[in-house]
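=== Discrete structure encoding ===
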Amino acid sequence: MVTIHAMTPEDDAEWRALWNGYLAFYEARLDAETSAAAFDRLLDPASPVHGAFARDERGDAVGLVHWLTHPATWTRTDYCYLEDLFVAPAARRAGVGAALIAHVVTWARQHGSAKVYWLTEETNETARALYDRVATRSGFIQYQVKLTD
């Protein structure tokens, strides 16, 4: 049985372990200051960025999710963007990812968001199998112009 809870300052070490696993999965590197700033945002009640952990029956953190809301021009309410979702490899295919997504969807409903959306790499077949079960594929293709490294 997985439980979901908001992140607290005491979760720092477990968050960093999962965060580093997430970055490694995407072959990404962030400097320590950027990662520290991300965790600080997750804890700041004034920040639009939120985070939660999934814990297994032993209480170990086995997944994380980060999300934020933003105004949109196609609705009078906000959209909720699920920015980061990661489940530790040993806990995959056990419902952890679905529970984390459901947590964000519930939160977004409670806060009046018009929709929850997210991105993933085309090659992330494991995650896409889950996403195809819990959401509708939008058909849009993302483009970006990087402004910083």
The CA atoms of residues 67 and 104 lie 7 Å apart. The chain has one domain: 3-134. DSSP finds four helices and five strands in the chain.
